[in-house]
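the two lines:
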Amino acid sequence: MKYLDEYRDAGLARKFAREIHRITTRPWTIMEVCGGQTHAIVKFGIDELLPPRITLIHGPGCPVCVTPVEVIDKALEIAALPNVIFTSFGDMLRVPGSTTDLLSIKAAGHDVRVVYSPLDAIKIAVQNPTKNVVFFGVGFETTAPTTALAVFRAAQLGLNNFSMLISHVLVPPAIEALMSSPNCRVQAFLAAGHVCTVMGFEEYDPLAKKYHVPIVVTGFEPLDILHGILMTVTQLESGRAEVENQYTRSVRREGNQHAQDMLRKVFQTVPRKWRGLGEIPQSGLGLSDVYEMFDAEKKFRLATLPVEEPKECISGLILQGLKKPCDCPAFGTVCTPEHPLGATMVSSEGACAAYYRYRRVTTAEIANIK
Amino acid sequence: MCLAIPGKIESISGDDPLSRMGRVNFGGIIKEASLAFVPHAKIGDYVVVHVGFALNTLDEEEAHKVFDYLKGMEDLAALKESSP
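prediction for all of em together
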């Protein structure tokens, strides 16, 4: 068992698909929350294996996509300051702010570095005591414990040249916001397997009950996703709305208590603005008062400036599942992964970039769609 | 961004639970990962690793369930075909 290739068997995938065809009697709309699942669905063509009556809509679970422009602008402002080493996961570097992106700041000669882990940023801070080292802390509950541990370590080491620009977001408040919207078409959710590896899935029970939606915690490989969809459709067809766990090899009901302890130590829940969705109450994590000396926004005294997003970009509607990437007049023409207008085209987990990269649609076909 | 990859722990260094590191083998590529959140993890365990951190150990018995389910589905189909 290598926990990877076994879950990509085409023959077994077809068996799941046949079973989904067999049990589906009505149209159903299912949202996969996580961008990693969107990427896998489009890459492996999983949506094309499903009955036409099942619509998958791609949710807001891409942290790169939902980080508001204001926060990107703050990152750009800090990165351009003298004596700063700005560190970030690679996928944030090409996200457009209101005027430029981190890659262009780097190209202009500023010290912007891609790191694999938040702990690498700590190492850089230790090695460069005369520089201010800032880490861009974005991501969902999966990533938040790792940045929390980095802050905790920085405090242990007494690193006063380290700080973090934080824009962590939480999944359950976003599901709540989507479900309470009058435009909501979602009838069931595939919940994000790695978020639940950390958090468990008890907090989804009240959501399933309140909105009468099945929520199935699902993994990321093709067989996982198809199995998750089968479990979801089985619930929908029988009128059940429960939280079930497909990704049992990684997810336990209570999640990872050690990671959650670290989250509670370092962070507190805060209101957070999501790109495309607006502000959602208690949907983010920010540093607790004890650790506020590591807050880059406070350290560099940044003011929030109002920003405008490109008018032709419909990423907000895409993040809510109201439009598909091909519905956008800019898709594949003025908006491409090389020159993205909005965040869903930047990250490979964004719905637009996934469609652009993997959908075998020609430019002529795109023109016809329009 | 929540990408996490399964790999096998080859060796472990450090005693302090928060700074314990493992050398994790991802199909031949070996990388260091923090074991801070998996104090129970031991050499030979498979862990799912995200941005240099093991988020959990993988449960082998549970991992077979997808295949057991598929097998059950086949058996059921065969049963239906053979019944009049």
